[in-house]
Every structure is written in structure tokens, then in C-alpha cells.
């Protein structure tokens, strides 16, 4: 049986999501980096932006799902939320990893990858 820990704070890009913030406040602040900030040609920049936007979308949906957990939910409801949250983080990770290949060293991408891995329980020792 897997253990699940609901976090009270999780990073969304460079934004820290706390229980006092609404999902809309976070998504308003989370921005895709400007194309001028990228190190690649135009087609690679567009590919980066598209992948980053998809990764952020899945990540934000996962955070929204996670934040929907309430103390009054029963175990089955909590497991359902956990399952959906994990699925969304798993969906986000490959998009961020693709971005890392396209633009190594991007801090926003690193935060996305680290956030997904943390949520999924992936550590440097976990394969």
C-alpha cells in the first residue's frame, strides 16, 4: 500500500502555492517565459513554449485537484483525488523534460520537473 502525503505548499513555476491562495491567483501569476528569453532558433523556441505550456497546464490541474481535498472526504474520495493528482503530475513531467532538453538550465523548467518528481515521490535514489 502506497502512502500519500497531501502537501500544504507546492511550487508552481516560480510561484509557491499556499492554502491561502486561490487557484486563479496562481494561474494568473504563472507565465510562460517570453520567446526572447530562450536560447534557440524560432522553431525550437515555439516547440519549447508549446511543451512548457502543456506541462504547466497539467501541473496546475494537478495542484487544483490536490487542493480540492477536504478533511471531510472519506478514504475512497481521498484515494480518487490522489489517483487523479498523480496522473496529472505524470502527464506534466515529460513536457517539462522535453523543455529541459530544448533549453537546459531554465529555472522555470527545473521547478516544474522538481515539483512533479516531488509529488510523484521520485528521488535521485528512486528509479
Quick tags:
127 residues, mainly alpha, two-stranded antiparallel ribbon, disordered N terminus
Describe this structure in words.
- With 127 residues, the chain is mainly α.
- It has a domain at 46-122.
- 59% of the residues lie in helices and 5% in strands.
- The chain has four helices and two strands, in the order E-E-H-H-H-H.
- It has a two-stranded antiparallel ribbon.
- Strand 1 (10-12) and strand 2 form a beta hairpin.
- The chain starts with 9 loop residues before the first strand and ends in a 7-residue tail after the last helix.
- Residues 1-40 have low confidence and may be disordered.
Strand content: under 5%
- The strand line-up of the biggest sheet is 1-2
The main pleated sheet reads as:
2 strands, antiparallel
Please bin the fraction of helical residues.
Answer: 55-70%
Q: Give start-end ranges of low-pLDDT stretches.
A: 1-40
Mean pLDDT over all positions: 75
| Category by helix and strand content | mainly alpha
Number of helices: 4
- Please tell me what the overall shape is: elongated
Number of strands: 2
**C-alpha Rg (nearest Å):** 15 Å
The SSE order reads EEHHHH
Instruction: State the end-to-end distance.
Output: 18 Å
